[in-house]
Amino acid sequence: MLLKKLFNPKSVAIVGASTHEGKIGYILVENLIKYKYKGKIFPINPKAKEILGLKVYPSLKEVPESVDLAIIAVKPQIVLDTIKLCGQKGIDTAVVISAGFKEAGPEGARLEESLKKLAKENGVRVLGPNCVGLIDTSARLNASFATGMPEKGQIGFFSQSGAMCIAILDWALGEKVGFSKFISLGNKADISEIDMLIALGEDENTKVILGYLEGVEHGTTFIQVAQEVSKKKPVVLIKAGVTSAGAKAVSSHTGSLAGSESAYQAAFKQSGVIRARTVVDLFNYGFALATQPLPKGPRLAILTNSGGPGIVAADACDQSLLQLARLKSETIEQLRSFLPPMASFFNPIDILGDAHVERYEKALDVLVKDDNVDAILVLLTPTATIEVEETAKVVVKYAKKAAKPVLCSFMGKMEVAKGVKYLKKHGIPNYLCPEDAVNTLEKMWQRSHWLSQPAPEYPQIQADKSHVRYLLEMAKRQGQFHLSERDAKEILKAYGFKLPQTQLARTKEEAAEAAKKIGFPVALKIVSPDISHKTDIGGVILNLDTPQAVKEAFTEIMLRVRDKRPRAAIYGVSVQEMIQGAKETIVGFSRDPQFGPLLMFGMGGIYVEILKDVTFRIAPVSKKEAMEMVREVKAYALLRGVRGEPPADVAALVNGLLALSQLSLDFPEIVEAEINPLLVKPAGQGCVAVDARLSIKKE
Amino acid sequence: MKKIYIGSTVPFSGKGLITLGLGKHFLSSGLKIGYFKPIGKMPFRVGNVITDKLAYFIYQSLNLKDDITNICPVILSYELMVKRMRGEVEGLMNDVKKAFELISKDKDMVLIGGAETVWLGSFLGVSGFKVVNEVGAKVILVNKYTGELFLDTVIESKEILGDNLLGVVINWVREEQRRDIEDLVIPWLEQNGIPVLGLIPYDSFLTAVTVGELCERLGGRVITAQEGLRNFIQNYLIGGMEVDKFTEYLRKTPDAAVIVGGDRADIQLVSIEEGAKCLVLTGNLTPNEIIVSKAEQKQVPIILVRDDTYIAAQKIQDISTRLSLKEKEKVERGLALVNQYFNFTRLKELLLTI
């Protein structure tokens, strides 16, 4: 098991243990003793004899027994020597608390490089530097300088920010949230979020993994690992630095690039990672996933003793991926049998403000048995009649029996306090307002759905790779990094894209001839390497339907180009088939520094420009993922056909996305590709790449 | 003895490389070769002799032993221009002829290197056309394809030279020009009795400069990563925009030098991370320590210049229009292109008819 000794060390050494109360070296020893660490403790300090009743050793070398884990809190320069000593003593895991590395300027950055190198050479895995430390509740190990020790629980938490660690720990103590492991990653010189995912994935005491991230360094590995781990247990992450302001803050804070929001969003989606937007959400999701079973479907039953909260919950449900369950007729009959006639027997089930605990109990009893219900949300407002704590007990009793998740929103503060405490103690998540509960259930359903998906298929696309390789080689040789439209289209053709019929014309007579051959109407476009946005200068004229119109358009284009770009080289005009009755879309990919090829799909024209109605995935995409991309855009209805239009050829579009996905993997030197527009014809007629841009980089 | 004049009607067309390529080719086929350049524009001191820089480079590369004094008899300078206008200089053609006779002694072939264009030196009475006429040389024109200018000047040269025009080499052909050149230009030239002796593709590596050379030309100061001075630069980017947009450009632009104000730490950081070949920091502003250490770590040289970004960019523009043959790698790559794409067989056939 990875990092075994990080989590269950039989003995720890504190290098830099201090006799001065309040110093980090003192707090580290104090925390180990105070929280009753099970193993042996060896404080190291060349000047001290005894700290808090423990014998102090002058150096790691002098420790007579073997040491599993070294906790290091000395000056940066001495950290390096200590790592060497660890290697000599056979200590293969160390936690470097000390600051003064990458975060502290160029000198520190050099030290961190040396630290990485030494760690590798000496076979020592290093957590940190510049971290708060770690806590392992099952070993009762608090190897950190944070105050307090969380309760034992099933949540494993890691954080790239030390301050977030300390704040969350303090909050968790107040909220009585239990943890299995609590880790501060610090500068991630060696052990990264990827190692943590693997280690917590393997840890038996951890049921849910939560994490706070600012940046991921090895995106591809991250996706692979997260995907594997997500299959075993839920992974919930917060990714900070998603806005451009946040990203700048990340750069100046960690000296690394933040990466694009679209890429993270795609990466999380594809690897089954549940994304939390706030710290509150992170723990809302985490606690529910740790305590409740996953719903088998999206159908939610809401049980309430008042109308308002029930409506709020119903609204939230409707706006989510969940549905209000349609109760079985037996259920409704049974509800009718014991509820007053003014009550609502349909979902949301309103047992009225004068309800006592009995109504909750009887209602829960029938809801738990109803197969049309996949999840139950119990709402309670502290009316004069309701016995809050008794109700909490009833909820706990039935939740234990139910093979479906039961979440609560006991609304209020003082009156519900005892009930809420009871619920939490017995593993029933409770939320301040119903929306949070619905939101959490939605994530649980998404996870359940993700887990039930069959293994993805990655169909192989037939492509003439050697021709593409030749074209790219020629372009590189000439230092041409934005491929000509002709080359870009040839490459797409090699990957199975259909192109509109096109012919080069150098005179107006040739243009008219070409148009006749292609069939009217046609479009005319200037051919010039010096003009990149042809439409801007009037270099494109559409819908020409007679030979005469073509001739006139030819002359018109030539006049406009001479006027707007007198020095541009002209190589004629291309006469193009006009595609009729097709839907305009955009497909393409770019490369994200962390995650690699980022595939994009959107509806063309105003949808992409004004509404930014686009969606992303990281390549390779499976057939299912490509289909999801198409369905995910808001304007998808247009492809299905509105107002009696025939549906568009979505199958061909999906194939196009798969082909681009493969192109991006086959030729890493293509840094950007865009087909705009890709016209999707009615079902069965395929799609046509009308215009394409492709950029390459040199290796 | 064969006399071949290699000139052009479009400046900066890459004559030097073609001349060198022809010289090497004929040397290796066992001919005794001479090299001569009637008029030069880049004065260069070799011992006590002032000669032309490019001429001397070709002379040396061909390993020739003639007296350096005679390689380039006329060096065009301000002083010479003044003297000519005051009527103090006459009869330069005699100097040219004398030097040419000395060079051509005991040779099988003399390659005559043209200046900027065949017209250079007309006011001195030693233009390319005059010299060709005077010494009775055959002419190869080496030209970039530039549309009308190319067509006008080649056809005019044909009218002036008649059968003395051996042919044209079209150099620096970009892929997007190829279709027009092959479909239209070559058939038309051949129809007009102008043989095409080669179509040599553009290779961006030949216009690359090293970071060291860039620094020298900009009059800058390197403050870190001296090891990177031999990096080749093929592209330039001005970091004047938002980081996100800039990153997009940078990723698409290989081997780039980034010109940016000394105070734009964001652009500097992203340039270093994303593999720029060097940073040119304008306004003589020293960057942050963290930038310097990152640059050192990634071996990206930082050049400080006094100019503002616009002036620095202008200076760079001047550098990249002229092919510099300083680096061995570039000369070898260029010669390989000449060997591959120059039609030596056709040239030999044409030479047999003289």
Characterize the structure shown:
The complex is a heterodimer of chains A (699) and B (354). Chain A is α/β, with parallel strands linked by helices. Chain A has four domains: 4-288, Succinyl-CoA synthetase domains (Rossmann fold, 3-Layer(aba) Sandwich); 293-452, Rossmann fold (3-Layer(aba) Sandwich), CATH 3.40.50; 501-578, ATP-grasp fold, A domain (Dna Ligase, domain 1); 583-696, D-amino Acid Aminotransferase, Chain A, domain 1 (2-Layer Sandwich). Chain A is built from 24 helices and 29 strands. By secondary structure, chain B is an alpha/beta fold. Chain B has two domains: 2-202 and 324-352, P-loop containing nucleotide triphosphate hydrolases (Rossmann fold), CATH 3.40.50.300; 208-321, HprK N-terminal domain-like (Udp-n-acetylmuramoylalanyl-d-glutamate--2,6- Diaminopimelate Ligase, Chain: A, domain 1), CATH 3.40.1390. In chain B, helix 9 links the parallel strand 14 (235-238) and strand 15 (256-261). The A-B interface holds A 105-107, 109-110, 113, 244, 248, 251, 255, 257, 474-475, 477-482, 484, 486-487, 504, 506, 529, 569, 571-572, 590-591, 593, 671-672, 695, 697-698 and B 147, 174-177, 179-180, 184, 201-205, 207, 234-235, 243-244, 248, 251-255, 266, 269-270, 273-274, 289-290, 292-294, 296-297.
Instruction: Using the alpha-carbon principal axes, give the shape of chain A.
Output: flat
Bin the strand percentage of chain B: 15-25%
Which class of the largest domain in chain B in CATH terms? Alpha Beta
Mean pLDDT of chain B: 90
Question: What is the count of structural domains of chain B?
Answer: 2
Query: Whole-number radius of gyration of chain A?
Result: 32 Å
What is the CATH architecture term of the largest domain in chain A?
3-Layer(aba) Sandwich
Helix content of chain A: 40-55%
